Amino acid sequence: MLHSYLAIAVRQLLAQKLYAAINVVGLALGLACALLIALFVRHELSYDRHYRNSDRIVRISEDIAVHPPLHVAGSSPAIAPLLEDFFPQIEHAARLMGCLQMGGGMLVTVGERRFVEPRVMGAENGFFEIFELDWLRGDPRTALASPNTVVLTDSTARKYFGDADALGKIVELMETRIPHEVTGVVADLPDNTHLRFDLLLSLSGAPAETLASWGSNCFHTYARLAEGARPADIGHRSGEFFNQRFMDGSARIRGFTAVPIRDIHLRSTREGEIKVPGSIANVYALATVAAFVLSIACINFVNLATARARLRAKEVGLRKSFGGTRAQLTRQFVGEALLLATFAFGLALVIVVAALAPFATFVERDIGLRTFVETGVLMDSHVSRDLILTIFLPGSALHDGAGIIRGRRRGRRLHDPPAGR
Question: In angstroms, rounded to a whole number, what is the distance separating the alpha carbons of residues 279 and 372?
Fold first, then answer.
């Protein structure tokens, strides 16, 4: 029976090539646009969620009450060592130094080769207790515990040393060629994180006056909160913290906010971000556009299917006169709609695969085939639901709107003899 329905559906579509092509291409373009936008939206919403305990990691960002008020991403380096004692909600805090990547980059010498690296940061060893990176070589517990040590990303290690083991090798930094030992190699950071570095230098050898400064915002302070702790509670006591740990009365002009790292990319408007943040408003706008485009494609699909069905009234009447039941006719029309939607969905996937690389370049995001498969966007977005509705709405329209499957046309049965005969 299923084979019979399928054969009839294929014959109908082959007999009406223009109708089938318009319907398939229209729905496919709508689905492809919605899928591409859904990939982008999913990517934006996934920032920094892959870190373990990411829901408990915050960044301490300073607020300075000048005119106009200044809200910066960084914080003074003296703050981090004092947080755990003052705030019982904070389990661990660590500093990341971002000013090393200013001025165009840092000169790195490997043997006789020279590189200018724009993505260089400094960190203390406790940074790895908060951000659990994917370690390929080395021990995160001791990698940056000693001065003049450096952790490389995998691509940087390969650029410097090829396929040789980078662990224990020496790289020389800056014009003075200060030697640093490679003590760890981590996987390249994914695109969906606000962090950005290729070399991570140890801060254990930094001057004590630099790390104790209350006036530099070159540092980013991160903290891991205890279970159930609220970031807002940390910020509410920031004035008290400055009064007691820095200077009495300083709370009038200084404070900080504990910013959840999941909110940094889409909701931050602070100065001095490591990467240019996105916009939650853009995400909402694009999601609305995707829904609008998909709705138009679905409505067009339904309208064309309904209009075409009205032209098949004679066929329906003949089928009923030869014993066709209402359920059989419903299955036939829904089967044809299902076949069209399947073709459209397949074509949409082809379009998405073909357009993915230029689309990723256009939006400046690392969205590839791996992202397309791993995010499960087809199941997580509303695309599947809308597709199902699109498939079955034509059957509903034919069943209830046109009245054709009931075997009626302008108030009389098609197989009834004309009045007066």
Answer: 22
Which parts of 118-218 fold into alpha helices (H)?
127-130, 154-161, 208-211
Q: How close are the terminal C-alpha atoms of the chain, in Å?
A: 37
Tell me the torsion sign for CA atoms 333, 339, 345, 351: negative
Distance CA 266, CA 80 (A): 25
pLDDT tens digits for the chain (421 residues)? 555 555 655 666 666 777 778 888 999 999 999 999 999 999 999 999 999 999 999 999 999 998 899 999 999 999 999 999 999 999 999 999 988 766 678 999 999 999 999 999 999 999 999 999 999 999 999 999 999 999 999 999 999 999 999 999 999 999 899 999 999 999 999 999 999 999 999 999 899 999 999 988 889 999 999 999 999 999 999 999 999 999 999 999 999 999 999 999 999 999 999 999 999 999 999 999 999 999 999 898 888 877 766 666 666 666 666 566 667 666 676 777 788 888 899 999 999 999 999 999 998 888 877 666 655 544 444 444 444 444 344 444 334 434 434 444 444 443 444 444 3
Q: Which two tokens stand for residue 410?
A: 């302008």
pTM for the model: 0.79
Q: Name every residue whose Cβ is closer than 8 Å to that of residue 272 and which is 6 or more positions away in sequence.
A: 72, 73, 74, 98, 217
- Alpha-carbon separation of residue 185 from 128, 167, 202, 244 (angstroms): 13, 7, 14, 40
Neighbours of 102 (CB within 10 A): 11
d(CA 101, CA 83): 26
